Amino acid sequence: MHRPAGARMRAPGPYDRTHPPGRVIDRAGTPGLRISSSALTSQQKPCQSYARFAGAGRGPLWGHGVQSGALESLQSLLAPTIWASRALPFPGVIEASKLEEEVEVASIDPGEGPPAPGDDEAASPTREAVAHERWPYWAAVAILVVGLLVTGILTWVSAAQYNQNEKRLLQLRVKEVAAVLAEAQPATDTPLASAAALVDATNGNVHKFTHFATPYIGSGQGHFPSISLWQPGGARPVATVGAPSALSASPSTARAFIARAAGSPTLSIIGLQPSSPTRLGYAYPTATRRFIIYAERPLPADRRSRLQSNSAFSDLDYAIYLGRSVTPGQLLVTSVSKAPLRGEQAKTKVPFGNTVLTLVVSPRESLAGTLPQRLPWIIAIGGVILTLGATALTVRLVERRRSAEHLAGRLDHALSENQRLYAEQRTIAQTLQHALLPEELPVIAGAEASALFEPGERGVEIGGDWYDVIPLDDQRLLVVVGDVSGRGLRAAATMASLRYAIHAYAAQNDPPAAILTKLSRILSVTETGQIATVLCAVVDLGSRQVTVATAGHLPPLLISDGHGEYVDGEIGVPIGAQAGAAYKSITVPAPPSATLLAFTDGLVERRGEELDRGLERLRTAATADHQGLPELLGTLVAELRHGPSEDDTAIVGLRWKN
């Protein structure tokens, strides 16, 4: 499809009519345009140009805008090729419901056709990425291993420190117990040493010895069951106070022990004398070695001696052995029911007469306290819990991250698909918009015609702006510019209905005012919720006259020799506002080489600005320099639209040739 240079789009590309996004065959076999059903919403705009223009003192005031409702279910829209093959049933009456049956509405993929089932899943980059990504739980495993390792090390350090402190404290406690035992030795030495001194002083006086020893006989603390006086080499005691000594039951043992004791300068001890109960024997020589003081003290039957609960050593178990070996036969006394002691132990030797006592102690409870004892367990349990919690949290974060990445991939895919569909549907909408505009402008001797349509930036919906140049005969042209309120298929259908009705009325050679009156009977705002502003101008090239009638539309601009004037006439009500409304036309002469510009409100309107300022801006830009007509239209649209605009812009120009 070829478009001559006189009727062009602003920029080639996806919006050019020579590159339609897709084609289908309608029920009549006529090639038509195919659009997506998602583009079938109507976003109507009030037709406010007439209200603002009339309110500025250029015609009767018609102040309220009308918005049409959304078109919920349209199945077709008129294609220009259909009207080429079908005759109008009668001039001027075209129903939107008829137009809606002309072409089938469906979504397409430009260049590829409809997607096959499952294409979305096959095209999704997320699944492939997930399938080839590395195992995502290494971080969780690393946290688990490191956490358990750190927990184990801290637990081991805490336990080792605790054991070291326990050993140190136990060594201190065993020294304290040994000091107590050493302090208790004088309780045994002193009575025997005093008795030895008395015997030595009295030359062995038995009576005085007996009198001195009697107070020390008994079963209480510091007392002896038996105290006796011996001479070295004797097998029997010289005198005995209290119970008979167990040593006298074995003369040979007594003779040997007394002989050894006579040669020792200190207390001599003979242990575990067989008797009931078992006794421990002590021998102390006099200074002259002529006499030996011998005493016995019984041991507990089961060797067990309980400590008081309020004792300073109530947190210890102990065992005292006679001599340096720790054997059951040498056990003197213990605090446990069954020796030997178990668990952590500390030993020390306590000098006792001519021998030693081996002291063994073990703690009944933690010497450092409950907290240090339980600290390793606290660290272990707490560390394991924290490690498991951190691992679980990491796993959850990994899962959420994977889910987020998967969702992001799906959203990215959906966004790309939506962008593709939006661009496709916008291309379809723009192509369909231009399909409803003239294929080409007529070529008439003595004049040059050019037109430009610039779509608005309001998504994928079709607007209602249009232009047309209709040849009436060899010397006359009908220039039409119109704007239907709202957007969407209903606005496009209304625009097509009005456009082709104008063609029919022009074929009847109706003047501009009559054409507008007939159009007012086609459209009714009370029925469709739509109105339209229309400008009709008959240009007589031979007589250089322009006859203009307007239905709420902006006046055309007539330019000549660097000056421009708007063709101001009486502005009638918009089409659809009043059925059968009367319109008046105005005829003005056109100077040589004049240029006539007719346009829609998108070229001059700016939000928050008076319409007169936009019209004056257009007059100034159009008369600023002299250039070709197509270039002039392109310059005006580029300079006056002021960036992206929601409104469509249509402009048509006619220039007389010399």
Secondary structure class reads alpha+beta
Radius of gyration: 62 Å
Give unreliable regions as ranges. 1-126
Shape: rod-shaped
> How many structural domains?
2
- Which bin fits the share of residues in helices? 25-40%
| Order of neighbouring strands in the sheet with most strands | 1-13-23-22-18-19
CATH fold-level label of the largest domain: Phosphatase 2c, domain 1
Number of helices: 15
CATH superfamily of the largest domain: PPM-type phosphatase domain
Distance between the termini: 32 Å
Structure in words:
The protein has 658 residues and is of the alpha+beta class. The protein folds into 2 domains: 303 residues, PPM-type phosphatase domain (Phosphatase 2c, domain 1, 4-Layer Sandwich), CATH 3.60.40; 202 residues, no CATH class. Helices cover 36% and strands 20% of the residues. It has 15 helices and 23 strands. The strands form 5 sheets. A 6-stranded mixed beta sheet has the order 1-13-23-22-18-19, with helices on one face. Strand 14 and strand 15 form a beta hairpin. Helix 5 runs antiparallel to helix 10. It is rod-shaped, with a radius of gyration of 62 Å. The N terminus is likely disordered.
Question: Could you outline the blueprint of secondary structure elements for this entry?
Answer:
Elements: E1 7-9, E2 23-25, E3 31-33, H1 49-58, H2 80-85, H3 96-99, H4 119-123, H5 125-132, H6 138-184, H7 186-201, H8 206-213, E4 226-230, E5 239-242, H9 251-262, E6 268-273, E7 279-285, E8 292-298, E9 316-322, E10 331-334, E11 346-352, E12 355-363, H10 370-435, E13 447-454, E14 465-471, E15 476-484, H11 489-507, H12 512-519, H13 525-528, E16 532-540, E17 545-551, E18 557-560, E19 563-566, E20 571-572, E21 586-589, E22 595-599, H14 611-622, H15 629-640, E23 649-656
Parallel strand pairs: 1-13, 17-20
Antiparallel strand pairs: 2-3, 4-5, 4-8, 6-7, 7-8, 9-10, 9-12, 11-12, 13-23, 14-15, 15-16, 16-17, 17-21, 18-19, 18-22, 22-23
